Amino acid sequence: MSLQVDLIKQLSDLHPKPEHIHFQYGTAGFRTLGSVLDSVMFRVGVLAGLRSKRLDGKTIGVMVTASHNPEPDNGVKLVDPRGEMLENSWEVHATTLANAPTSEAFIEAVDAFVKTMRIDLSKPAKVVYARDTRPSGPALVAALEDGIKAIGAEGRDAGVTSTPVLHYLVRAINTKGTKDAYGEDSEEGYLEKLSAAYKKLVAGKAASPPLLVDCANGVGAQVAYKFAEYIGDTLQLIPVNTATTTPGALNNGCGADFVKTSQKLPPSLASTLKPGQRACSLDGDADRLIYFYLDGRGQFHMLDGDKIAALVAAFIVELTKAAGIDDQIKVGIVQTAYANGGSTKYLSERLPVKCVPTGVKHLHHAAEKYDVGVYFEANGHGTVLFSPESLDKLAQHQPSTPAQSTALNHIINLTNVINQTVGDALSDMLLVEVVLAHKSYSGEEWDSLYVDLPNRLVKVVVADRNIFKTEDAERRLVSPPGLQVKIDELVRRYEGGRAFVRPSGTEDVVRVYAEATLRTQADELAYRVAGLVYDETGGDPARRPIEFL
Ligand code: 16G
Ligand code: MG
């Protein structure tokens, strides 16, 4: 069977590539202004179909979102059959296909790709897709649908839903009817699975205080409202920032990214959040989660991905011990260079900790190597993975006491409350609430597991961020030559000082992270390293375009 060249040509002509734009499949797929993504969407539809054919008709996922970015942005990423990110080696093919200048060039590129990858075009192809609440979404989905049609794939529209729900759906569809069945392949199936496990885990525990859920005015609002119904009285969820149809509201002054980067309470919560009460923020596609609370003096405290990892990992270790299975199932942690030094110290004194480059796919792959891999980026993206062997061991383990049996059941229920396909803000929220309920922890008690070092993140606009190259999981620069030595020299002058520089994978900037024992020192170190970076790029030092992130 060969390509339906006429059909592809006819549909591709409806979605011409804008001149002078180079698209790149980066850390989070294609992401840029929604208004220029039409051709990319069409081509991603074709590519998703090809990926499905290559994998023998397994369903491939496509998520249309730009997460925490401003509302005019949009983006698209592919999801592989087990619900994980697209295989690395296909990212460059996605980039090549997206940049073919004309329909003819695109068809040629597809043809060449089919031949090199030995894709059997007679195989079936299935694609499931969803979008977030951005206004540019419907038109982009229509372009995607044209692509799916052009390659002769079968499309399933999952509508408006969160990124983690789409990842869940992909896995559920591909495991349906097998011994690894992940759950019903619908949003209801997802809600039902997670909330049923949650209810079992908190049965008999004192009800938690009502939880404010800042939905970033994004798609998480819709899913949070549904969870509120499914879990009923066991935990009162109060969704706030739920204005998904108000123009300009998405991620604006709210959401996980706002809280993490500004280290502030979303202003819209200032009058609702009471001292002692905890709250959490999701990002625009509900795959990131940050908690926070006000102490008795009304002071804001943030509980980020590192704090979530510490809370959750300790709880799982405790349960494996209580179930008498800790000799067979070991817990490990995966972090990035952005993990607060306080968390790395705390965790590595207790468990194996691995540091990997930024981006979920790196953390996910590293976490797969542990029996139970707990991975979180400081920015709130993360989950827990149970290896297939660990799941088997849990299923076969014979507890010798009722206490062991209870602990074992708790772990098994945890495997169901956790969305193991990808970081999932609402699943992580339920997980956190389970641990807090079991430990009878307030936000303050959770926070006191370890003390965060003051830190500062700064971005530097440079002429060419590609000259910045890193090693050692982005903790050191190898290029530009000599810059790392200068950074080291500076860092040595600060007590508890640590700093690193890396090019962003999602924005045309270089990011600088610094921490130190004192807040003023962390700020100063960040600025001074940013200054070194800027000078290195030959800019006018009097006009350093440095911006706080
Ligand atoms: C993307 C990544 C996130 C990472 C961030 C870093 C995924 C799904 N998301 O949002 O994990 O923390 O990029 O952005 O991989 P940066 O490279 O601009 O700092
Ligand atoms: Mg996101």
UniProtKB/TrEMBL annotation:
Binding-site list for substrate: 377-379, 502-506, 511
Documented EC number(s): 5.4.2.3
Example of a GO biological process term: UDP-N-acetylglucosamine biosynthetic process
UniProt entry keywords in alphabetical sequence: Isomerase, Magnesium, Metal-binding, Phosphoprotein
A GO MF term: phosphoacetylglucosamine mutase activity
Alpha-D-phosphohexomutase alpha/beta/alpha domain sequence ranges: 60-89, 102-177
Xref: Pfam families: AMG1_II, AMG1_III, PGM_PMM_I, PGM_PMM_IV
Gene3D superfamilies the UniProt entry points to: Alpha-D-Glucose-1,6-Bisphosphate, subunit A, domain 3, Alpha-D-phosphohexomutase, C-terminal domain
Reaction(s) the record says it catalyses: N-acetyl-alpha-D-glucosamine 1-phosphate = N-acetyl-D-glucosamine 6-phosphate
Domain of life: Eukaryota
Cofactor(s), names only, from the UniProt record: Mg(2+)
Cofactor details (free text): Binds 1 Mg(2+) ion per subunit.
Domain Phosphoacetylglucosamine mutase AMG1: 193-289, 304-441
Pathway it works in: Nucleotide-sugar biosynthesis; UDP-N-acetyl-alpha-D-glucosamine biosynthesis; N-acetyl-alpha-D-glucosamine 1-phosphate from alpha-D-glucosamine 6-phosphate (route I): step 2/2
Residue ranges of every copy of the Alpha-D-phosphohexomutase C-terminal domain listed in the record: 457-530
Active site residues of this protein: 67
CDD domains listed in its UniProt record: PGM3 (cd03086)
Residues binding Mg(2+), per UniProt: 67, 283, 285, 287
Function summary: Catalyzes the conversion of GlcNAc-6-P into GlcNAc-1-P during the synthesis of uridine diphosphate/UDP-GlcNAc, which is a biosynthetic precursor of chitin and also supplies the amino sugars for N-linked oligosaccharides of glycoproteins.
PANTHER family xrefs: PHOSPHOACETYLGLUCOSAMINE MUTASE
Protein family: Belongs to the phosphohexose mutase family.
Designated name of the protein: Phosphoacetylglucosamine mutase
Organism (species): Wolfiporia cocos (strain MD-104) (Brown rot fungus)
Source organism phylogeny: Eukaryota, Fungi, Dikarya, Basidiomycota, Agaricomycotina
